[in-house]
Structures are given as structure tokens and as C-alpha cells.
Amino acid sequence: MRKTIIIFYSAIIIFFILVFIIINNLFFRPISSPKNYEMTFGYRTNDYLAFVDSAPIFTTRDGLKAQISFPELAKGDFEAKFKVTRLSDGVIVRELKIKNKAGVSGQIIDLSAASWPSGSYECTYESNNKVLAKKNLMLQ
Fold first, then answer.
1. From residue 55, how far is each of 93, 133, 136 by CA, in Å?
2. What is this structure's pTM?
């Protein structure tokens, strides 16, 4: 009889532990990181620092930003370069050197695009002469 009670209570404890794990994974799982470096564009971010108005084509230039999401938290400090090239003539319209600190998961960059003419632009994010992310942007 005592053995049956121990098995019964053990089964109940295991059941509640499994229910806790399932609920925790379904409702409280952290936002996952991308598999590669990803670049998006927009103006406003939500609580998770993702753009709520991301698009490939923009008509308003003021306040336009680029976001680079890292596949994992930076393990150590590293330098990177962000460059925007106008595709029609190859002119670099914006270039920044960025110092990323250990533990960051991405970077938001103000493009300062108010004076840029309409057209297509290529944005690249590189470190140690290796392109980590590249994406085109169109301004109308």
C-alpha cells in the first residue's frame, strides 16, 4: 500500500513538472535570434526593438533607420562598418564605423537620409573585411 502511494504522488509531481515546462515554453519563451545577420529598415520600434513599420520602399526620409540583428549576442567587443551606396552611380552616401560591445544583440543606425535623392541604395554591414549583412533600400 505504501509503495502505491509513493508511486501515485511521484506521478502527480512528474505531471505538474511537465505541465510547468510546457506552459513555460509556450508562453514565456524568449524571442529567438535570427540565424544570420539580418538588416531591416523603418522608423518606429516596438518593445522588442523590432520595426513596426518595416518596408523595402520609403517615401519619407526623415527619421529613417536601419537595424542589424545579430544571430547571437556579441561574445566580445568588435568594430564594424556600415555603408550606404547609391546604386545609380556607386557613390557612398553614408559610412559609419561602429564599436559594438560584448553582449549586444544588434544595432540601430540613423540613416540621416533627409537629403538623399530618390533611387535605390545598397546598405552593407561588415566586420574584419567580411560582409555580415547586405540589403537594398528604395527611396521614392
1. 20, 17, 11
2. 0.70
